[in-house]
Predict the 3D structure of the following.
Amino acid sequence: MSALGEFFDGLFARLRLRLLRTFWHVGFWGLALLIGIASGIAAVLFGMGISWIQTWAYGTPDVNRLHSFAETLDWYWVVLIPTIGGVATGLIFHYLTDDGRVRSVADVIEGAALHDGRVEGKEGLASAAASLITLSTGGSTGREGPAVHIAAMISSKVCEWVNARGITARDLLGCATGAAVAASFNAPIAGALFALEVILRHFALHAFAPIVIASVAGAVVHQMAFGDQVEFNLPLAPDLQFYVELPAFMGLGLVAGVVAVILMRSIFLADQIASGIQDHLTLPRWLRPAVAGVLLGLIATQFPVIIGVGYETTYAALSGNLILSQAILFCIIKVVAVSITMGGRMGGGVFSPSLMVGALLGVSYGIIATSFVPSMSGSVSLYALAGMAAVAAAVLGAPISTTLIVFEMTGDWQTGLAVLVTVSLATALSSRYVDRSFFLTQLERRNIHVAIGPQGYLLELVRTDATMRPIEEPTQADWDLVEKGHYVSAAGTLNTAMTVFERTRAVYLPVVKAGRETAPAQILGRLYEVDALRAYNKALSDAAEEEHG
């Protein structure tokens, strides 16, 4: 073949490759768009479902003023409604899950890291139903976590249909979760960054375009359903005396970080105490949410602000319509109510509660701070806005996306410096006392080590029987190692194997298939430490390629 012919053959081959890549990207982006639309619809319908059931349960025509209406109800209705919701939630978890645990954002992060972009189906549907009932009957949690998990279930089903694996499946999961957040808040920018920052935990370029497409689709679904409106319309134009007030906002950031840690640890402590009482008294699993519902109802008779998502109180804080004693008291009571709801395993998420707690903290701090030098101080509303962003960012471990969510929810982009200073200090402080965020700490408490990065969990993804060198006949030396306990299970992972290597200093370990009643154990092969290290190195290389590709 002539040199000219080779040149044209190479040119045509490169053009074919470019065309194939272009068609693949167009098709993938189209799939991302469809997932974004479906996830946005699911998130909007979930929110509408909460409003419909709340209207029916409490008899109020305006769910945005739910706690004000609840003040007019007889006390026994205020107690009975969350109690019935708790019983229903308990029965759902009892019969449809193995562990009685709600699935939420932490499970989506786990799915992205460890399960090829998949989340549980049946348990996820049970969690969605339970969260819907909880939020509709007075549970003091948020709607965004369940919406994110519902979107993740949509993505998982699509991945099964198209047999998507690896990077593709995780990117589609990011598309779904970004669209759910965007549809929940009418915040497409924040939705996209939430998926990258919280779910995928990297900002790779290959994921950015499809996730943005899906998030915009989710926001469009929201706008078609409710119009192009922000969640909170601030009645006051915040006025920041930049150079004078920045130290005050730095102080607010540190206080917000402490409050965020208190909120997170209170939830974990409540769950631990409830589990201990349940085990000690051998209570049936379905009774735990019912007891939590009774406690919430009793608190709500005196403090109806704890009922539901709490946007009415959050708006009051952002508007500066609370006095100092009210704001402080409501902040404490909300932390208690959220801890009871989540410790009672009633369902729901932590984002909306953290917004309310942060706004209440911010307005309390703002009232005190502005009282020192009133003539040189800005609006208390700005402190509420910054506090709301700071506590939420610290709880989610997502300073970038949370800051943008707050901006997009309020429509105010002129206060970025104050909010960013507050958020950065709050997240820096809180991350020292938890495993980076509420969700990652949840996973750590279940011995799922995602917080430290891929190096902490990649060994769990590689099975020993996939890395071993098969053998036909084991030697006496192999059986001697087994007798000493120096072996690994064929169904185990390299994480366990590396622990055994470190303990025994062995060059290789027999890989054993456990025997049954009538069959003895078998040695299937040998796992060499060099092979395990080679597999780990490849997994790290693939993870780095995905993150930086």
Notes: The mean pLDDT is 86. The CA atoms of residues 329 and 360 lie 9 Å apart. DSSP finds 21 helices and four strands in the chain. The longest strand covers residues 522-528.
